[in-house]
Amino acid sequence: MPITAADVTQAIAATMDEYASLGPEQSFVEADIDSLSLVEAAVILTNRFGVRVDEYELAEAGTASATAQLIQSRLDALRRTPTIAAS
User: Fold this and answer.
1) C-alpha 82: how far from its chain's center?
2) Gap between the Cα atoms of 13 and 75, Å rounded
């Protein structure tokens, strides 16, 4: 099931109440998400979805929709990467 902007906003809002009204296309700048909050959001999203996302990538993505696409692309890449069985 693909990661959606709603998944991203819910993950952030679950821990950061002040961003509960963050919309999928609302820019993080418009929402007044400062650099420290981006660090916190990056940790939340990394823990929630299991792929590393840093605050610089969140700033560059700029919205929950773009962040969802970033996370989904990383998850897709992980699924395509073959694993090596231990001998």
Assistant:
1) 24
2) 22
Under 8 Å CB-to-CB from 17, ≥6 apart: which residues?
A: none
Query: What is the pLDDT tens value at each position of the chain, 87 positions in all?
Result: 899 999 999 999 999 999 999 999 999 999 999 999 999 999 999 999 999 999 999 999 999 999 999 999 999 998 887 766 665
Torsion of CA 14, 17, 21, 22, to 10 degrees: -70
pTM over 0.90: no
For residue 69, is it left (φ>0), alpha (ψ between -120 and 50) or beta?
Answer: alpha
